[in-house]
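Is this the right way to post structure tokens for a design question? Let me know if I should format differently. Anyway, here goes:
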């Protein structure tokens, strides 16, 4: 990283009608640094990125790129000056191949009469080689995982001679392992002198990768500095404007059993898992990657049913051999990869909210539109989804609000048991504690809540029982008198070496 500044913004303002998205934002990105842009949902991060990339012209303010002031910047101006943005949806073409997605743009710009397919493939392979990606160039994009789609988007950006690569919330839909891989790629780009700006609001992730940090709040610039000038307290204060007071979740004692699992197992995944969840309990399941923590959720929801053991829901033995069975028994499930599995991003909040309970609205062959709208509006209000109406596609919502839509979808089925895998991955501090409050309230109403997570702080603060998984076996259930550091030691100590 040098002290030379690549991008400088001063006093950027942008309003959409009455919404003042940016109210005087300053920003400095140095050459070759990794800069994190943080702030709660709706504070203007994406709008700022669009101002930098020429998508939105600011109402006021100045932009300098490489020492030169740029006025009336259009997207092509930004690209020509080396600014490349990877948006949350990656803007890739699902029907084109990996190679076409990476290289076609450049090939079309070359003004040659015919597309040179050989060079498309060659350019793509070279770009992938540069970042150590190993993806079949001929496979269609729609068949790739989220992480691989993102890599294709990064390859496309770097062959366009990026000097500044901007990634909007790149870790939201990634697993912990995929995040590691992304950081490796970013480190290699940084080593080539490319500046990187990442939108992220998880301080532990930011610590792993960022050199410097800028925080926005409600469209305003709050602070900026070296990453080491921020600890959890200052970070939270700057993001939210107040301290987040968090106490541990302790429900009223109850012997009323909601869920009991006895010696549950699935060959090759996990075995001998037993636990009891009583009314009021928020039960956590944790373990290292590959410990089987996620597979228990998949078994209880019938995605990958158990082949041994017993499940009792509200005192009654039940069989779960399919998702249909699980839904029949009123079990709800939020998958870890909600952006690809839990939500239809292009569909409205309404469509998503009623997606798991559509049968309820069928009346003599017709859909009860008013009923669907009424229920959706109820949940939007009840769990505080921030949106002007129930019509916008979920794609336009922030991570925290999108996650609330998945929760609304399952609440609308009135579940007896609600399993959430990574419920607050990619969700910022404020919305995170709102989601936890929702879950505590549901537990208090007698709905069984299971949180599967590797976020130790989240577990210790929000679950009153924690099941620890190790190599596919349950190595114990503990209460939340433990702190996150000791819990981490238990996972590793109990788990031997991580299965990387
Ligand atoms: N095209 C738009 N039209 C109207 N309002 C918008 C538009 N884009 C963003 N906003 C509003 O501007 C504010 C900032 O949004 P955004 O930049 O997406 O926040 P962030 O990325 O930090 O979550 C929000 O209140 C959002 O609803
Ligand atoms: Mg955004």
């Amino acid at each position: 990283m040098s002290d030379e500044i690549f991008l400088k913004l001063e006093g950027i303002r942008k309003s959409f009608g009455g919404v003042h998205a940016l109210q005087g934002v300053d920003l400095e990105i140095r050459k070759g640094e990794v800069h994190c842009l943080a702030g709660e949902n709706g504070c203007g991060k994406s709008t700022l990125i669009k101002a930098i990339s020429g998508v939105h012209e600011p109402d006021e303010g100045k932009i300098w790129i490489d020492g030169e002031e740029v006025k009336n910047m259009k997207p092509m101006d930004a690209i020509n000056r080396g600014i490349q943005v990877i948006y949350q949806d990656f803007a890739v073409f699902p029907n084109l191949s990996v190679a076409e997605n990476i290289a076609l743009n450049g090939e079309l710009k070359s003004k040659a009469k015919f597309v040179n397919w050989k060079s498309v493939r060659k350019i793509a392979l070279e770009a992938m080689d540069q970042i150590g990606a190993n993806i079949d160039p001929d496979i269609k994009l729609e068949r790739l995982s989220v992480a691989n789609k993102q890599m294709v988007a990064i390859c496309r950006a770097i062959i366009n001679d990026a000097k500044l690569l901007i990634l909007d919330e790149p870790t939201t839909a990634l697993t912990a392992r995929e995040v590691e891989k992304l950081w490796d790629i970013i480190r290699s780009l940084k080593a080539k002198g490319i500046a990187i700006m990442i939108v992220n609001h998880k301080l532990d992730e930011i610590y792993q990768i960022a050199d410097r940090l800028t925080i926005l709040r409600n469209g305003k610039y709050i602070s900026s500095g070296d990453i080491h000038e921020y600890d959890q307290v200052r970070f939270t204060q700057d993001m939210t404007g107040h301290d987040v007071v968090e106490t541990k979740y302790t429900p009223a004692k109850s012997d009323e059993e909601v869920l009991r699992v006895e010696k549950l197992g699935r060959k090759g995944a996990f075995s001998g898992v037993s636990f009891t969840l009583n009314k009021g309990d928020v039960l956590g399941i944790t373990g290292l990657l590959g410990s089987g923590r996620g597979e228990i959720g998949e078994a209880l929801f019938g995605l990958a049913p158990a082949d041994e053991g017993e499940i009792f829901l509200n005192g009654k033995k039940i069989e779960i051999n399919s998702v249909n069975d699980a839904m029949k028994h009123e079990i709800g499930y939020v998958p870890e990869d909600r952006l690809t599995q839990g939500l239809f991003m292009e569909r409205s909040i309404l469509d998503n909210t009623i997606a798991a309970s559509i049968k309820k609205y069928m009346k003599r062959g017709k859909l009860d539109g008013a009923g669907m709208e009424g229920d959706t509006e109820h949940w939007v209000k009840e769990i505080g989804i921030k949106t002007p109406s129930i019509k916008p596609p979920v794609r336009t919502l922030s991570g925290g609000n999108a996650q609330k839509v998945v929760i609304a979808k399952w609440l609308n089925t009135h579940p007896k048991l609600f399993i959430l895998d990574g419920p607050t991955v990619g969700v910022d501090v404020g919305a995170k504690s709102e989601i936890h409050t929702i879950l505590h309230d549901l537990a208090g109403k007698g709905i069984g809540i299971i949180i599967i997570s590797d976020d130790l702080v989240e577990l210790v603060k929000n679950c009153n029982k924690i099941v620890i998984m190790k190599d596919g076996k349950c190595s114990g259930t503990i209460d939340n008198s433990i702190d996150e550091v000791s819990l981490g030691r238990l996972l590793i100590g109990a788990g031997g070496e991580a299965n990387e």
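Format looks fine. Someone answered above. Worth noting: The longest helix spans residues 176-191. The mean pLDDT is 89.
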